[in-house]
Amino acid sequence: MTAPARPLAFITGASSGIGQALAARFYAQGHDLALVARNTQAIGDWAAGAGLDAARYAVYAADVSVADSIVEAGMACLARQGLPQVVVANAGVSWGIDSAEREDLDVMAQLFATNNLGMAATFHPFIRAMQARGSGTLVGVASVAAIRGLPGHGAYCASKAAVVSYCESLRGELRARGVRVVTLLPGYVATPLTRDNRYGMPFLLTADDFAERAFRVIMRQSSYAVIPWQMGIVAKLLRLLPNAVFDRLLQGRQTKHRHKTAE
To answer: Which domain holds residue 117?
Structure first.
């Protein structure tokens, strides 16, 4: 395993949306890139269109919902580009479910496989080497939806709440060896994942605006951040509401589409 000449950022879900915007931000700040997605053609087309130096990035095909697939991508990165300074587990899916429908139990399992096990598998190849080096940053992308469960979003909210708890646990495990864990909770960001939402999206950010703010949080190695901060206040206020008031407030609210595709 070679040491990268420049800091290296390993980013999943890099074919569009937040992942692609974060890739552009890290590249602009002098990082080499290890870009991971199922749709590698989309990454290649974007990189070529953006004028990225081919010597400064590599593309890896992986299905994050399959643990061995993303682990193999991480191992390939170590062999080809070396040990990243930053690993961003961004890939995720967002589907509504109806627990009265049997097929939606399988949808929920797939969502957890991607958003939760996929995150752990993304980090796995790099942890021991980062501990040995005494430095590194693991970034888990959760959601403000982690803070309170929303009708029709049970699987998604539960998965993102699990991301927050998982990253908190991992942070405690790794801190003494110099490895930092950062948890990002995006509010509403204009990406293919949110394009068809049927409800209002307050404080909506562009992917580039989110990436700029997220990059600053990661470089500061803050442990936890809601982006934008206004959504953090809204979420905390909702958390404080008594259940009866919260339930009335959300009664009749449009829910997320079922069985949407991944970003």
So the answer is: 8-250
